[in-house]
Amino acid sequence: MNWAYWNPVKIRFGNGLLDEVAGLIGQRRWALVTYDQPLFREFSARLTGIAGAPVVSITNIETNPDCADLAESCRQFGAAEPAEVIVALGGGSMIDAAKVLAASDGDFETVRRHLVEKKPLIEGAILPIIAVPTTAGTGSEVTSWATVWDSANGSKYSLAHPRLYPETAVLDPALTVGAPRGLTLATGLDALSHALESIWNVNGNPVSANYAVEAAKEIIETLPRLLERLDDVELRTRQMRASLLAGLAFSNTKTALAHNISYDITLKSGTIHGIACSFSLPMVMRWAMGAQPQCDAALRRVFGPDLEAGAERLGAFLRDLGVATEPSAYGVSAGEWNRLVGKALEGERGRNFIGRQAAMAA
Ligand SMILES: NC(=O)c1ccc[n+]([C@@H]2O[C@H](COP(=O)([O-])OP(=O)(O)OC[C@H]3O[C@@H](n4cnc5c(N)ncnc54)[C@H](O)[C@@H]3O)[C@@H](O)[C@H]2O)c1
Ligand SMILES: [Fe+2]
């Protein structure tokens, strides 16, 4: 089997590394993308205290960057002195928003035309990004795509370009210590979903599988303990490292069926991404089992030799954390669920799933 693995992001990992971001910006004019919230004003003050002021701060996005808000962000960005590098300080929403700004050339219309009319981006104008994640989950700091939500039309787009891999990812686990339980749970499960979805994936390869196995094992062991001790920096460090490894895995494979299912669940009921993309994992795992020897082998490295018992344990793991695993808990009837899975199997991510035949037969 031929395969390839590539990820160009420079990774810096360690507690206190926020203070090194200024050195990475260097003499470049920079823009900051972060939340308009007290904790992030504190982080930003720490950063600007060393790096000096950014040419512009974009703070109008809270979560799930949406076309309407991004148009305003791009307008502010375009009106400011041109930046040479963008620093994204926040969760996946901030890193994804930074990717949209980086590709926009100061006008959201550039990105909209690309997403809707498939017009090429202005490649030479795409700006470098320094990604400083404050959640341990999305992996966006090492991927080349961003989710752009269009809630007005009940849909979502994926903005993707090789130039959108961040220049550097700075992972400082201390920044995640203030994340509340619900956010820690959802982001932790998002990372678990990235790891497993890159295993049952037609694009899987030995490098992505190694990252994914390591990530999944670590999350299953660490997350329940972390949820009991949210201020434990050592557990935060382990969880962030696992989320990074999951990101490195799916940066090359993309996700699969559980993520494709999640988009409709989120758009329909507003269920937070990390829960929407993980409640179906035990079911999706059962469809994947037996489809491909390499996939089974990787799953055995995570769950042990008996995969059916492993799927059972995965379900119990989620339910013990308070995550219901049946679709009805998300307002989806049995009939609707079958339609939703059928649609997801035809989606861009669903087509990556190696267990499509078993899922179609179910
Ligand atoms: N590009 C990718 O590869 C990729 C992958 C998965 C998900 N995503 C996207 O990422 C988004 C979700 O990102 P997310 O789950 O990281 O959350 P988020 O960025 O949407 O943030 C959610 C909330 O968490 C708070 N928060 C963040 N860090 C905190 C901290 N350290 N302490 C206290 N509060 C904190 C923020 O204030 C915010 O209100 C979704 O839009 C999803 O589509 C992108
Ligand atoms: Fe995800």
Q: What does this protein structure show overall?
A:
- The protein has a six-stranded parallel beta sheet with strand order 1-8-5-4-2-3, with helices on both faces.
- The chain has two domains: 10-174, Rossmann fold, CATH 3.40.50; 181-361, Up-down Bundle (Dehydroquinate synthase-like, alpha domain), CATH 1.20.1090.10.
- The chain has 362 residues and is α/β, with parallel strands linked by helices.
- It has 15 helices and eight strands.
- Fe (ii) ion binds at residues 138, 190, 193-194, 259, 273, 277.
- This is Iron-containing alcohol dehydrogenase PsrA.
- Pfam families: ADH_Fe_C, Fe-ADH.
Task: Give the tags.
alpha/beta, Rossmann fold, 2 domains, 15 helices, 8 strands, 52% helix, binds nicotinamide-adenine-dinucleotide, binds fe (ii) ion, PhpC
Main sheet, how many strands, which sense, barrel? 6 strands, parallel
Compute the number of helices. Answer: 15
Hetero groups bound? nicotinamide-adenine-dinucleotide, fe (ii) ion
Q: Output the helix-strand order.
A: EHEHEHEHHEEEEHHHHHHHHHH
| CATH domain class name of the largest domain | Mainly Alpha
Mean pLDDT: 97
The total strand number stands at: 8
The share of residues in helices is 40-55%
Major beta sheet, strand line-up: 1-8-5-4-2-3
Distance between the termini: 30 Å
Assign the CATH topology of the largest domain: Dehydroquinate synthase-like, alpha domain
The dominant shape is: globular
The structural class is alpha/beta
CATH architectural designation of the largest domain: Up-down Bundle
Strand content: 5-15%
- The domain tally reads 2
CATH superfamily of the largest domain: Dehydroquinate synthase-like - alpha domain
